[in-house]
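Example A, followed by Example B.
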Amino acid sequence: MASLERAELLINQGKIDLAIEQLKGVLLEDPDNAFALTYLALCKLRLDQPDDAIITAKMALTSNPEIDFALYVISAAHLKLENYTKSENAIKRAIEANPNQADYYGLQAQLKLISKDFKEAIVWAEKGLTIDAEHLFCRNMLSTAQLKSGDKEASFQTIHKALEMDPENPLSHANYGWAEIEKGSHKKALGHFKEALKYDPHDAYARSGMLEALKAKYIVYRMFLRYYFFMANLKSGTQWAILIGIVVINRVIGSGAESIGEYGFLLNYVSYALIFFMVSTWVIEPVFNFFMRLNTYSKYLLTAQESKTALLVGACFAIFVGSLVGW
């Protein structure tokens, strides 16, 4: 006989298809069962069907407006769709309805990380940990927020604690790996990504980290990563200010080169270097993906889109070299 308890157990075990069968059985007997609809929405979210998850969770709220977990599912689905404002509105409503769920605070912390409000992310993650001191997602969000805000020592202490609580948690290992990459220790990062993928072979977060750690073996890419992390930790307004500043400096150099006569070519070289620097930040990732594509093993870490782009970059480079030789 189908039951909500059985469905919940199957969801926790990751057996989503079997859980859906259980939930369909419950809904056959009671089509307006709000709890069954909420669990079904969660299943759709786990199956990477965020639009369907939102529709189903809203049906649950129509049946019973007091189910705060349905709001959490809606928020998580909007997050997956990158509708960050809608996601934050939903999680705020969930927290107001039930302020005693650590999951809700963890999701709010994640949203603050995305908006680069790192201090607020720390506040929300710590609130979640006051409710459940062993909540791994909140602890991972706290570690990332601490790292991004510049407190590396506290960040590593936090993630160490997470791994002590659950040495087989793939998110903790992946987070540790990304922290090591940002610190410049790509070899240590590889070990943590390997562990993360051992426990969850389909973890895209760990897979992309593994790829970045492999590319970081090249010194040029390590230099790019330093710049990338520096820019990524800044808010969009500051990022634009830096890029506009580079353009302005380039123009000033161009004017100065003409005014100082025969030695102006030296300033032109500085200008060329700045232009190369700006352009390289746009193309360096697909270029190194092309090198990864040629590798017997690391090519399997590339997504279909990354692999396609890498091959196109390789073709463009071949045409460039051929044209240069022909010229």
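Example B, a separate protein, is given below in the same form.
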Amino acid sequence: YERAARAAMEIAMKMSDELLRDAAVRQIVELCLKAGNAATAKTLFRAIQSASIRDEVLREFPQLQ
């Protein structure tokens, strides 16, 4: 899981489209939470800049507040 999350994050950070990058980070946040790594999920959540994606994530995962 950790290797896959790290590789996915490296790919996401190379995306030039901010909305696509935020959507990718959102998926990685969900992966981290499913793996029980809330600390990493919270850190990655703070990297999401799109208000609509942040709101969606918070509705689904209120523990990230």
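On Example B: Residues 10 and 39 are 18 Å apart (CA to CA).
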